Amino acid sequence: MASTQAAAATEQAPTKNPTLLAWVAKMAAMTQPDRIVWCDGSEAEKQRLTEQAVKDGTLIPLNPKTRPGCYLHRSNPNDVARVEHLTFICTPNKTDAGPTNNWMEPEAAYTKLSQLFEGCMKGRTMYVVPYAMGPLGGPSTKIGVELTDSDYVVLNMRIMTRMGKAALDMLGDSDDFNRGLHSTGDVNPDRRYICHFPQDNTIWSFGSGYGGNVLLGKKCLALRIGSYLGREEGWLAEHMLILGVTSPKGETTYIAAAFPSACGKTNFAMMIPPKEYAGWKIETVGDDIAWMRPGPDGRLYAINPEAGYFGVVPGTNYKTNPNAMETISKDTLFTNVALTPDGDVWWEGKDGEVPEELIDWQGKPWKKGSTEKAAHPNSRFTAPMSNNPVLSAKANDPQGVPISAIIFGGRRSNTVPLVLQAFNWTHGVFLGATMGSETTAAATGKVGVVRRDPMAMLPFCGYHMGDYLQHWLDMQKSIPQLPKIFQVNWFRQDKNGKFIWPGFGENMRVLEWIVNRVQGRVPTQETLLGWVPRQDQGLNLNGLDLPAEALQEATSIKEDEWKTELKSQEVFFEQLGTKAPEALMLQRKLLIARLDG
Ligand code: O2Y
Ligand code: MN
């Protein structure tokens, strides 16, 4: 009976917060779980849930000698990635969601999803998961509560957020928390919806058990709802990694960088500098999301709201990202990778020989030479950030880190040069607004097609993209010491389709130039697009086996390519209609004038 569930929700609750209790009771009355479990985040709870998940087949224990504390999960094959076409922003007016989001009217969405949620947890347990996004007690930190019927979600949220009693304590009796409701339902793509209600600080997710659709603190709260709150409250919620780069002299510069999904943010955030950079150190503050607000000293301060990494596995190895390999050596949940006969995990691009035989990501026997992938291209690791050998001590600092540079980067095989610096903040916002990237497997859809992805936020902006870009422009007024803005492209290809720039650790060379520009140490060369490294006092290429013509190609600006690019940008700006910010239209006109002049 619905009223029994509501009473149970209140009886066992470790809180007296009236708003929270009333909401949990209301959701329980709708979903009708057999049990309600309030999660405390303890070690004992982790053990209990893990044992249960192993028993019900949700988790497969890995070899405790080679992967201590690690487990494999296989999702439903129809449920392997975020679903942008089933993700909705539910605002009273369609224009508030804008042309780049799917929209549903809030009452219509609540009604539609209520029908799915009605009784969906019968025979199941509802877990109440209180969590903090950001270091506990920090001024930027937000509290969320996710109700879910998935023990896999609870175990992931435990890694990805500061979850349990501490979050509940931080909330106290406040009604200021995100209300997240999730049910795996019957994992039917025809009944899958990820709905955001920014005005109600609410997220309802039904019909998926995978990643970004269900770990509601991540893309849903930290980006979609976060970006909406950021505009209301005067801060920025961004799809950005945060790193600290320390020179041999001990000077640390903090940098935030936006790249679209699966463009190597985790690799960049954990980069090991090449041997020519002895004494330099990169430390990770975050690998995916940055919340940035003006600090009392006039600088822009960033926190990483997450506590773990949900990284792409294929392609990760000791050459591309040794620190990630260490990070996932213990206490990690793997989703949709292959299983080796000795109980380890395997994926395409892992170091060493390809095993003769495996169990693939769908649980089927796999033989070396098979044309099928053994691991799904969007297979993931969920690992605590405390496992990262180069974790910055500032990752847990509630005040965050002062950002000196912001980088925008896309995956472009042509057109965009290796690196350039924006002329000023407005020009930098224009560079971010006009980002484009060739698509990958993280979003469902076609692979290898250029799509415009402003600030890498296309799938994550919780309101009208034109208003979002205007908010970026407006932030200039509240940040007296503005970060410098840069654009990079590691993915330029030669005429044979081969990447020109070696990438990975060698990106340190570009990073050093950025640091030198920020600290006002190197002169630069002006071009049509922005400032670029000078040939004489530019990038440090010592020890790099890169022919001069290759560097010339990676940094070249081809006017014919830019004319095509401007057309594609025009299509995007036209989509924004009257909400396309005037300042960006002027930047566009200036660029056209420079190209035509
Ligand atoms: O496909 C998913 O559910 C995961 S998507 C994801 C995960 C971690 C970090 N970033 C992303 C993304 O799509 O940007
Ligand atoms: Mn991401």
From TrEMBL:
It is found in: Cytoplasm. GO terms for molecular function: GTP binding; kinase activity; manganese ion binding; phosphoenolpyruvate carboxykinase (GTP) activity. It catalyses: oxaloacetate + GTP = phosphoenolpyruvate + GDP + CO2. It comes from the Bacteria. Residues 23-231 form the Phosphoenolpyruvate carboxykinase GTP-utilising N-terminal domain. Pfam families: PEPCK_GTP, PEPCK_N. Mn(2+) binds at residues 219, 239, 288. Residues 235-590 form the Phosphoenolpyruvate carboxykinase C-terminal P-loop domain. Substrate binds at residues 82, 210-212, 261, 378-380. Its cofactor is Mn(2+). One of its GO terms (cellular component) is cytosol. Keywords: Cytoplasm, Decarboxylase, Gluconeogenesis, GTP-binding, Kinase, Lyase, Manganese, Metal-binding, Nucleotide-binding, Pyruvate, Transferase. The keyword Plastid does not apply. Gene3D superfamilies: 3.90.228.20, Phosphoenolpyruvate Carboxykinase, domain 1, Phosphoenolpyruvate Carboxykinase, domain 2. The active site is at 263. Pathway: Carbohydrate biosynthesis; gluconeogenesis. One of its GO terms (biological process) is cellular response to glucose stimulus. Its EC number is 4.1.1.32. It is an enzyme of class 4 (lyase). GTP binds at residues 262-267, 380, 411, 504-507. Binds 1 Mn(2+) ion per subunit. Belongs to the phosphoenolpyruvate carboxykinase [GTP] family. Monomer. PANTHER family: PHOSPHOENOLPYRUVATE CARBOXYKINASE, PHOSPHOENOLPYRUVATE CARBOXYKINASE [GTP]-RELATED. Catalyzes the conversion of oxaloacetate (OAA) to phosphoenolpyruvate (PEP), the rate-limiting step in the metabolic pathway that produces glucose from lactate and other precursors derived from the citric acid cycle. This is Phosphoenolpyruvate carboxykinase [GTP]. It comes from Corallococcus aberystwythensis. The gene is pckG.
